[in-house]
Amino acid sequence: MKPASPARAQYPKDRPSFFAQKFIRTMVKCVIATTLGPEAFTLLTVIATCEDAKRYRGPVTYYNGQLMPLLGVKTWNRLERIRKACLDTGWLIYIAPKRGDRAPGLYWVVIPTDAQGLGDAPIDENVPNDYEQPNMIQSRLSNEDQPADRKPRLSSESDDQPKFNATINRSAFYPTPDPVSGPSTKEHTPPSPPSLLPSERKDGDGDGIRNCPAHSGSPTAKLPGWWTGHIDVKRLRDPKEVTEMFRDAVKSGLIVKTKVNALRIVALSLQALTAHNPGGFFVRHVERKSWNYLTPANITEAARRLSADGLGFTPDELRLAREAGP
Fold first, then answer.
1. Measured between alpha carbons, how far is residue 172 from residues 72, 164, 176, 270 in Å?
2. How confident is the model at residue 63 (pLDDT cuts 50, 70, 90)?
3. What pTM, to 2 d.p., does this model score?
4. Residue 255 vs residues 119, 246, 312, 325: alpha-carbon distances, Å
5. Residues forming CATH 1.10.10.10 domain(s) in the chain
6. CATH number of the domain at 19-115, out of 1.10.10.10, 1.20.1730.10, 1.20.1740.10, 2.40.260.10?
C-alpha cells in the first residue's frame, strides 16, 4: 500500500484516547515484527507511545541521533531502511526537514486501510468478541428490564452454591501429629554441646590453623596442640623452643622421655619447616606419633645437633627413630 504524500499529510484531529494501545495490538495481529522486522516494530511503538504521552495534540519530533539508540541501530543507513519500510507499507508518516535545516523530523503513526477492519480482541478468529461489550453498569441496567426467569444469575445466587460452614474440618489443611497415648514416662534431656577440656595455653591455636575440636566428636575432645603453645616457624627454628616443646609433650603424656623421642622431636621440627603449614604439620605428627614420615637426612641432622649437648646415638637408635613407638 502506497503511503500518503508527506507534503499533503496532516495530523488527524479526531484521534481517540488510547489509540496507541489499539495501534500496537493491530501491529501484533499483522505480525509486523516478522514482516518488517523487530526494529520497525520498535520504531512504530516508540512513535505511538510518544504520541500518547503528548495526548495526540500533534506530530512528535525526533532527530536521527535520538532514534538510533532507541532502536538499537548504529548507522544512519540502517535507520533510513527501517523508516522507509514503515513508510512504504503505510504504517508511518514522516515529514523530513528541509535540506540544510537543523529542525527535527515529524512523525506519527497510522493504521493502513487493509488493517483497519481487524477486531480489537486478543484473537481474530470467528469467535464472539467479549472484549468489545458494554461496561458492567450498562449490562446490569439492561438486565433489570428482563423477566425474572431470564435474568442471568450470579454464582453467589445459585441454589447449589455451598454455604460456609463455621465448623469445617480443618485437619486436612492444618495437619497435626498423632496424639501420644498416655503421659510420657521418659524425661526428655536436650543434648549438651561438646565441651572442651581447659587448655594450658594462653594464646590458643596450638596448630596455627584454627581453633576447633577433634573430629572424634567426643565431649572430652581436645584441641589440636592443646599440650603446648602456639607453634610457628620462628619457634621451630629455635633449639631452646624445640626443647621446650619436647618437655611439653612429655609432661602431657603424649610421649615418653627418652633419647629416641628427643631425636624424633628435633628431626620433626626440621622437617616441619618444609611443610606448607609448619605448625600444623608438627602438632599433627606428634599427636599421631607418625614418625615414619621422618627422613634419614633430618634424623642425621637432629643427631648431630643433639650430640653437641652430650647425647650420642647408636645406629640402632637412629633406625628406631623412624619406627612407631611411644
1. 55, 17, 9, 71
2. very high
3. 0.39
4. 95, 9, 20, 9
5. 19-115
6. 1.10.10.10
